[in-house]
Design goal:
single chain, mainly alpha, Chitosanase, subunit A, domain 1, three-stranded antiparallel beta sheet, 8 helices, 3 strands
């Protein structure tokens, strides 16, 4: 099984099936893919019926390849970033750049994992990066809740998501 398939399998376990939570700004979601995103990729049916292949295609193109994660040396860093960008869009990339800067790199925090960011991700100490990155991910979720208290219903789940990811990465 190649790296993307392993990441995809992990994300399916984290994201789950169909949901339509009234507090979730994403609305109707299946496999972590929001309806508007599925529509951009050509899916026209009810979200409850969206095939797994549509989700695989979106994850592969939009989150994995578009962010250059296929060029990273570290499977763990690739999975961690992919998980965060799936959950938070380009904030996951911005926090990766911020973590790298906290570790001594000098990158523009623009949410675009370009040549310099990817080179830094291939150079950084994996464990130090992941520790920093996961800390920034937790802080990101807490800031969301402080800015939008209605999102507090998701905080425990978001923080558990980071904990589960850390435990999974330790098992690799």
């Amino acid at each position: 099984m190649d790296r993307f398939e392993k990441i995809f399998d992990y994300l399916l376990k984290v994201e789950g099936g169909y949901s339509n939570d009234k507090y979730d700004a994403g609305g109707k979601t299946k496999y972590g893919i929001i309806e508007s995103e599925a529509r951009k990729y050509g899916y026209k049916g009810h979200m409850r019926d969206m095939p797994l292949e549509i989700a695989r295609d979106i994850y592969n193109k939009k989150y994995y390849h578009r962010n250059g994660l296929d060029t990273l040396k570290s499977d763990k860093i690739a999975l961690s970033i992919c998980d965060f960008v799936v959950n938070a869009g380009n904030w996951g990339a911005k926090k990766a750049q911020a973590a790298l800067n906290e570790l001594g790199f000098d990158l523009r925090v623009d949410g675009i994992l370009g040549e310099k960011s990817l080179a830094a991700l291939n150079e950084v100490d994996e464990n130090k990066f992941l520790e920093k990155y996961h800390d920034l991910q937790r802080r990101y979720y807490k800031v969301i809740v402080s800015n939008r208290p209605s999102q507090k219903v998701f905080l425990k789940g978001w923080l558990n998501r980071v904990d589960r990811k850390e435990n999974y990465l330790k098992s690799l």
